[in-house]
Amino acid sequence: MAYVVTQSCCADASCVVACPVNCIHPAPGEPGFGTTEMVYVDATACVGCGACATACPVGAMVPDAALTTKQLPFLELNAAYYDAFPHADRTPVALVPQQRRLTRTGPFRVAVIGAGPAGLYTADELLKHPEVGGVDVYDRLRTPYGLVRHGVAPDHASTKLVTRLFEAIERQPRFRYFLDVEVGAPDSTSITLADLRSHYDAVVYAVGASADRSLGIPGEDLAGSVPATALVGWYNGHPEQQDLDVPLGPVSNPSGRAVVVGNGNVALDVARILARPVEVLERTDLAPGPLDQLRASNVREVVVLGRRGPAQAAFTVPELIGLAALDDIDVVVDVDPALLTGDDQRSALLRDLAERPVADGSDKRRIVLSFAVSPVEVIGTDGRVTGVRVARNRLVEETDGSVRAEATYDTFVLDAGLVVRSVGHRGTPVAGLPFDERTATVPNHEGRVEPGVYVVGWIKRGPVGFIGTNKTDAQETVETILDDLDAGLPAPSGTAAAIASLVAERHTDAADLAAWQRLDAAERERGARAGRPRAKITDVAEQRSVAAPPAAVRRRGLLRRTVSLTS
User: Fold this and answer.
1) pTM of this structure
2) How far apart are CA 344 and CA 382, in angstroms?
């Protein structure tokens, strides 16, 4: 019996270290790690011990004997990797480097700005070193976990299991949260970089890439044209996106169609959430308000536009396998058959999908995957979206083998009341730090902006990679921090108690780990009553109220009452 990776990989490499026979690749340090779509298990070397399944934070490892029919493509996917990359030079076990020890004893204190995966992996790497006396993690929201909470699709519940790893990180005794705290905002209550530098030996920014890339076409700012970053935040319960104008009903979207521009994994997430039956969504942690709107949705078709061909599609093969396995929606491939002749995995899977019949009179909602097309204009009436003008593209192969899309004059119009722009995230400037407008990142060298100030995650490298990619990224940044600590950074003048007092003074509603645990428990309890994993609380005032500490017991009154009962 061998194990098989059965979904998009989180890439944090826990399984690689756990494997006793080094049969999971690419491993950290090997070509392809963090850039391939997943890791792969060598069935000829796997001994079936299950250590990888125990270590995997997202439940992706499954014995081959337990695969469902819909998971069988992953068996071939794992085998195909070793046909191309046999890793004949592998060591008998995965090599784990000896843990570094600092030459200076500390204790050192580090602030991490951002409680998403990059920030929490950074905290974890720092806390592995006893010379680090404490790590404080800040976030402007009252809820941690970043895009795992507000970005992972609600119907990808297994991916959200990585939060169990984050829970273990935040329970470490030298870890503190300062949630619901603004850092670097242009107002007098914000905590500034100067404040942080005077209280910590090092400051790490893990603030992600929260903006979206522009299409650069007429009409993209019409009402009903929304960035995927906002729509994903909306259905995932981000407090700042709950008033987003999402035209789904018969009056606001009489066409019954939504168009998603771009065909990466996020585009497929959006398409699924808009198309899947509400009975499925009701079993997820999709935010309550958006769920009510989706119950009344008039959208019957979601068209996903990709500017190049099937072989160049941005979505990963595991995500396509997952989409093809759904039996509650119809998936249609709209492409010139001549573009489906490739022997690559995407083309082969899409060819199979294209040949799959759709039943006449099917009442299922449908997702249409269109290729070699580009939007050239978002059309509207009275300031609202009514459709998209789309051009068919000519695909041009460059001398280096890459494929470029050229728009032709052959255009057509898709009626639609909702247009979702899903062409990538973009970082935004960080107060007090340099910013590269071209890459939308903070310039750095292996995470160092300057001695004492560092970056990690998307604001460091750009919006690429998977959840676990942040682990190796964090390891690089932490190694740089340790180098600087050993070299001698200026000691902070403020203490851990002093920064806590400053935060409490400027942010009276600041939340700690206990407050987050109370909010988390309340959401889980509300969800359980409705048969859901959680019911997200999206109103900030209600979050604060629910997370408030219980009223203290008045011991003297209790004592008097006890005495009166016994006298």
Assistant:
1) 0.91
2) 45
